[in-house]
Amino acid sequence: MNPINAQIQLVSRPQGEPTLDNFKLVEAAVPELAEGQVLIRNHFLSLDPYMRGRMNDGKSYAQPQPLNEVMMGGTVGEVVASKNAAFSVGDKVVGMGGWQQYFVVDANQRGVIQKVDTTHIPLSAYLGAVGMPGVTAWYGLVKIINPKAGETVVVSAASGAVGSVVGQLAKARGARAVGLAGGADKCRYVVEELGFDACIDYKEHRDLKSLSAALKAACPDGVDGYFENVGGMILDAVMLRANAFSRVAMCGMISGYNGEPIPMSAPQLILVNRMKFQGFIVSEHMEVWPEALKELGGMVATGKLKFRESVAQGIASAPEAFLGLLKGRNFGKQLVKLV
Amino acid sequence: MNPINAQIQLVSRPQGEPTLDNFKLVEAAVPELAEGQVLIRNHFLSLDPYMRGRMNDGKSYAQPQPLNEVMMGGTVGEVVASKNAAFSVGDKVVGMGGWQQYFVVDANQRGVIQKVDTTHIPLSAYLGAVGMPGVTAWYGLVKIINPKAGETVVVSAASGAVGSVVGQLAKARGARAVGLAGGADKCRYVVEELGFDACIDYKEHRDLKSLSAALKAACPDGVDGYFENVGGMILDAVMLRANAFSRVAMCGMISGYNGEPIPMSAPQLILVNRMKFQGFIVSEHMEVWPEALKELGGMVATGKLKFRESVAQGIASAPEAFLGLLKGRNFGKQLVKLV
């Protein structure tokens, strides 16, 4: 008899902040495999801020998450049955397995799942530092900010899956890395464990003037590159400290995901400081993945790239963990362990 | 006896909108020339929106205009006396001669004045289409927007010295050119004389919804490139119509020059549409001037690049003409004729 698959579906679209009522746990038997298909047992599910954007129906860079279907999401897992010659039982794979325990896929679709090597790299890292978040950090830092040694790079959400990699890559290039994170514990981790030069606790700075003063102290030579994960007041404060010819990689604006857009207070600074702003989605730049993963995998395997994970237990915990992620309650990469 | 030089000085910094009281007409005899110096009689003075920014004392990309000194500004004129072997009486030159009738310069300083050829190009054009405004248009269009044939390029202040060149260069590259200008006369000129595909009279659209609808009608395939001269609501409206991977050349934000910064309403669209914004100052890109001036000069000489001038008469009229420029009362390149 086939195993039972528990999955989380989106059953209504959040108005503003999502709630547990937007999600529903549904169970069904795993179907029989057709020729070419593979059955994967998901070991870890990745929770990421971009998922909030997909829960809306409006215009965005991706199709909205359909209602009454399994929530989309990246996963790593193990092949437990295969009718495809390219995949064997026991293979470890990464793919878009969704918020569920099992995942059936036609493995003849190129790129839909990828085998991964767990000899030197833990399986979960393929959802973080050696996966989409890591490549996101790499693209924004290397292709947009492109820091020179001695320049100052600032990154928001610095203890998170993306931000932590941005700072460590910047340090590896001889730049000064300054993080922004919420709370003393996260800031201590960013400096002491990840090796950033400084980290500002944004929760201690509730207005633009205070935050801008903290940035001035942490960045005495100004800001040459900013990796934007949050938007809102933090972006305004960084722009006040931006140097001429500074670059801003626009990766996420989590502060505006739940409601009305948050304006940029002083766009004329783009002109005054001859800044470059560039928005990007890493899935549109597949050409950089091999180069990025090579650097990231090598750094993780040799212990030069550190990361931290917040792990929720069991598929039923995914909605709660996701709401916590949107509030910054996670510490490092947010995962759900499914086995 | 040396001629009397009348000049306009800045005597106080405007709070908000400038007034005539901020300026003063001062007369003094032209000094004797020292070795290496040249005396130039200015024929035309260029008035440009950037001058408003320099009248402030705050942080900007350029030194503030000093008080009680001649206003800085670009000029074209004729050498009337020379103690420099490289320049002869009768030579036509372009330089930063200031708001005055005469101008003494050490012509051994490289690049401080440049000889120009008026055989096929009128002298005044070296302050417009074949000068700083033209190269500004060229840089933003070619180096930042870089339109492909069939793409849509929008430019604000489309009948002005910069905007008119942006649209004509875009058309020359096979793109669709859409202008924004204030008033039916300017819009008619932009379409009928300059050859833009469409022009929107922003004065007929007093709110974002109306302006955005007009842009949708004028740009049925969305906006791929935007050349920003004004800021404020027009930028917000264009961002609502921006295509994926669109580029915004930030050249000026005249709407915010007089007072409080005008916010950008929806900066998350930079991310959603993976846009690139880039601020620039053309004087920092001297390496492109020869290539740009070659194309611009060739197009003017052969009648392929059209332009229009608003000409005020006499140095005393410069302050009034400048205030009019800030209000969009000029029609085409604003000059002051000094001879």
TrEMBL record, chains A, B:
Q: Which CDD domains match?
A: PGDH
Check the UniProt entry and state the signal peptide residues, or none.
none
Q: Which UniProt keywords apply?
A: Oxidoreductase
Q: Which Pfam families match?
A: ADH_N_2 (PF16884), ADH_zinc_N (PF00107)
Q: Which SUPFAM superfamilies match?
A: GroES-like, NAD(P)-binding Rossmann-fold domains
InterPro entries membership = ADH-like_C, ADH_N_2, ER, GroES-like_sf, MDR_fam, NAD(P)-bd_dom_sf
Source organism's superkingdom?
Bacteria
Q: Which residues form the Enoyl reductase (ER) domain?
A: 18-336
Name of the protein = NADP-dependent oxidoreductase
What is the source species?
A: Roseateles albus
